[in-house]
Amino acid sequence: MALRNTISGRISGRGRRSMSSWWGSVEPAPKDPILGVTEAFLADPSPHKVNVGVGAYRDDNGKPVVLQCVREAERRIAGHSNMEYLPMGGSVKMIEETLKLAYGENSELIKDKRIAAVQSLSGTGACRLFADFQKRFRPDSQIYIPVPTWSNHHNIWRDAQVPQRTFHYYHPESKGLDFAGMMDDIRNAPSGSFFLLHACAHNPTGVDPSEEQWKEISYQFKVKGHFPFFDMAYQGFASGDPERDAKSIRIFLEDGHLIGIAQSYAKNMGLYGQRVGCLSVLCEDEKQAVAVKSQLQQLARPMYSNPPVHGALIVSTILGDPDLKKLWLKEVKVMADRIIGMRTALRENLEKLGSPLLWEHITKQIGMFCYSGMTPEQVDRLTDEFHIYMTRNGRISMAGVTTGNVGYLANAIHEVTKSA
Amino acid sequence: MASTMLSLPCTSSSASLSMHQLNKGKVKLGSSDSSICINNDRNSPFTKIKSFGRISMTVATNVSRFEGVTMAPPDPILGVSEAFKADTHEMKLNLGVGAYRTEELQPYVLKVVKKAENLMLERGENKEYLPIEGLAAFNKVTAELLFGTDNPVIQKQRVATVQGLSGTGSLRLAAALIERYFPGAKVLISSPTWGNHKNIFNDARVPWSEYRYYDPKTVGLDFEGMIADIKAAPEGSFVLLHGCAHNPTGIDPTPEQWKQIADVIQEKNHIPFFDVAYQGFASGSLDEDAASVRLFAARGIELLVAQSYSKNLGLYSERIGAMNIVCSSADAAARVKSQLKRIARPMYSNPPIHGARIVANVVGDPGLFSEWKAEMEMMAGRIKNVRQKLFDSLSAKDKSGKDWSFILKQIGMFSFTGLNKAQSDNMTNKWHVYMTKDGRISLAGLSLAKCEYLADAIFDSYHNVS
């Protein structure tokens, strides 16, 4: 090879710096625990395979869904708008509508312009921008993350170099909320700590605090002066009603907290691949909001300059049109209801099979995911023997369950757990 | 940074707690000193001490954590457009951001893009998450477009290609990879370079230094300085090169000079890192504009290339580009690709789909691809015409002997006028011509109709302002 002829004489013994490759020390990265599941699923030739891994909604035929309101929005925007760069902070219209969803249609906070908000690369991008912002402006702070949480949360704050702590959340014995443990951790954390909270439909457990519990959490946050950062990826998906799903946030706002929120349209508008979301930070006043927004933009510029337009246009077209918005609300409810129906079906099937275990949590938990309580070994058996794909923490994406596969799924779960 | 404890006002009445509520909460026995101190709790600048004799109580107040956050400076490039929008003067001209405009100074959506979008609409494809590395069809065509379909690096699967958020996002992925796997390695960037390059490497914590590039005396390339600085850098440095149509100067090395640059890079065991944001826009030919990259690849050197489709396909706001890393083996490429994915996941999980599909459709379809090439030539052609007209107008006006021919020699969207900051400010303040402070004008924002006016402005700023 020409390479060797020209260089062999000059590079003996250079080890890692030899011309053969710069990348000798680069190990293969481990597969992403969530997205890696889908990759494995796609590679499986079995006709019985079931994908209950990634949280992407499927209809009752197991097919991805593009909402009608989205199709209509796309028809309207196709070929009409040019593709000029959005402002660094993203689509103003989209942000306006998005804030209304989270903070309330007639929120005074929006009117008073106290919210610093930028369009983000879906929920991931919003969390990452906030983590980078936290690192830059509160470099001594750390983030308290619930156990368990979406695995990418750990990656995000780690790559932003913000030290992580955890707080109790899931109670394995009851498969519900470890409220006492959570409150203890909140009380014991140094005052003014940053906490990551799932606004609704906790991922991966599906376990949410009740309204009463949220009020107590909010009160304790006040006492301790903690900063609440909400990740709201499932507004509308939990109960079927976006207003209801924002309740935790509204409670905190009523109590006067200055919060941060990451919002995503991946699930509730089915815009997964469009990467559209919003990061907002509630400030004391308009002046501070302007300053904070400018700094968020400053962080985004060397990451991707400005956010992608297509998804944002879809969102603002839908939410800006009363009829389309109504259609959207209807379609979100249909999706949420289907999942609630599948929860019931799965539980009933398991009980009918005579499972020795309790499966009440399947219907108590809320949102896209069910934390089944299965062990990694049981999950492996599900995959190896039954071609059922899910993450090894036992999380089932209920969105992947259909009337067609719920029986098969229940059977398989029963098989691997009956002797547990 | 607001790390000192100050007396912070309680800004919201709903935040104040009654004594009754306080009594339910924590009571700290602390110093009787009523000046502000937070005992051992240095993490809470948001609490206010109320002293009651020997008992201090901590009360959470409604003060923002981000009290100390100051206003960021406007972005030197994107901030220009924002200022332009606010200007109401009728002769205003936006020569700031590099976004192509028609002769009527309107944004331009390429016909092939409209066709591709209609095809996509008809097909009604879903909007599922892309894999972390992006759309496979896109990754395939983008690497082929850059290296040539028959290039051995492609045939041998030695290229790790990952879809990125246009040029910026692709550069950032690579910067993060460098930081992780080449700790302490420096990136050499041209002086001057695109403003955001420095931000990207700074935020990725990769050290950088500059190599000489622009020679103000000749308004051309300081080739000797460039070679000397690349030679002087520590072995194994990354050298950031603009594949074609250097931004902001418009000054590109000649083919002969590229060869010499490749020689010295090989000699010093450096890693070439190309930023290719204008393939097709420089000469009008996609292949010609990739010549520098292909030259290096043909030498068997491992290299990095960031691509963007913002300008050449007019897909600015779709944020579509790619990071390509040519490795010495398919195995190395697979490993490198996996690590790029690991960097992308905590940044945005997976890239946006819309732009990727457009590119895959345009580049992957022979008919659309031919049409694209024609539109590309048209856009590059318009810029060449505008350069000629501007040069002619300035030469006619300026009898001082000043040589304006650099306008014709420079290539691509931008021209480095040689105007200094004060002169550039004059362009804006007096003539309402918006440009960046480094003297860069975007010819893509200039129409034949406005060349006279611009010539007047440049002539005035150059000769009457220092």
From TrEMBL, chain A:
The answer on whether this UniProt entry bears the keyword Transferase reads yes
Q: Name one GO molecular function term.
A: pyridoxal phosphate binding
Q: Which UniProt keywords apply?
A: Aminotransferase, Pyridoxal phosphate, Transferase
Please report the stretch or stretches of sequence annotated as the Aminotransferase class I/classII large domain. Answer: 48-413
Provide the E.C. number(s) assigned to this enzyme: 2.6.1.1
* Leading EC class: transferase
Which GO cellular component term is one of those annotated? mitochondrion
- Known catalysed reaction(s)? L-aspartate + 2-oxoglutarate = oxaloacetate + L-glutamate
At the top level of its lineage, which domain of life is listed? Answer: Eukaryota
Cofactor dependency:
pyridoxal 5'-phosphate
Q: Where is this region: Disordered?
A: 1-22
Swiss-Prot/TrEMBL GO biological process terms: amino acid metabolic process
Can the keyword Transferase be found in this entry's annotation? yes
The entry's family comment says:
Belongs to the class-I pyridoxal-phosphate-dependent aminotransferase family.
Remarks, anything else?
A: In eukaryotes there are cytoplasmic, mitochondrial and chloroplastic isozymes.
What is its quaternary makeup?
Answer: Homodimer.
What biological function has been recorded for the protein in this entry?
Answer: Important for the metabolism of amino acids and Krebs-cycle related organic acids. In plants, it is involved in nitrogen metabolism and in aspects of carbon and energy metabolism.
> What is this protein's name?
Aspartate aminotransferase
Q: Which organism is it from?
A: Cephalotus follicularis
UniProtKB/TrEMBL annotation, chain B:
Q: Which residues form a coiled coil?
A: none
The reaction(s) this protein catalyses:
L-aspartate + 2-oxoglutarate = oxaloacetate + L-glutamate
**What InterPro entries does the annotation carry?**
Aminotransferase_I/II_large (IPR004839), Asp_trans (IPR000796), PyrdxlP-dep_Trfase (IPR015424), PyrdxlP-dep_Trfase_major (IPR015421), PyrdxlP-dep_Trfase_small (IPR015422)
Q: GO molecular function terms here?
A: L-aspartate:2-oxoglutarate aminotransferase activity; pyridoxal phosphate binding
Q: Name one Pfam family in it.
A: Aminotran_1_2
Cite a single GO BP annotation.
Answer: amino acid metabolic process
Span of domain Aminotransferase class I/classII large: 91-458
Superkingdom, taxonomy of origin: Eukaryota
Q: Which UniProt keywords apply?
A: Aminotransferase, Pyridoxal phosphate, Transferase
The EC number of this protein is 2.6.1.1
Cofactors named for this entry: pyridoxal 5'-phosphate
Does the record's keyword annotation contain Transferase? Answer: yes
Family matches, as PANTHER family? ASPARTATE AMINOTRANSFERASE (PTHR11879), ASPARTATE AMINOTRANSFERASE, CYTOPLASMIC (PTHR11879:SF46)
Protein role: Important for the metabolism of amino acids and Krebs-cycle related organic acids. In plants, it is involved in nitrogen metabolism and in aspects of carbon and energy metabolism.
The subunit field of the Swiss-Prot or TrEMBL record says: Homodimer.
* Family of this protein: Belongs to the class-I pyridoxal-phosphate-dependent aminotransferase family.
UniProt name for this protein: aspartate transaminase
Please name the source species: Cephalotus follicularis (Albany pitcher plant)
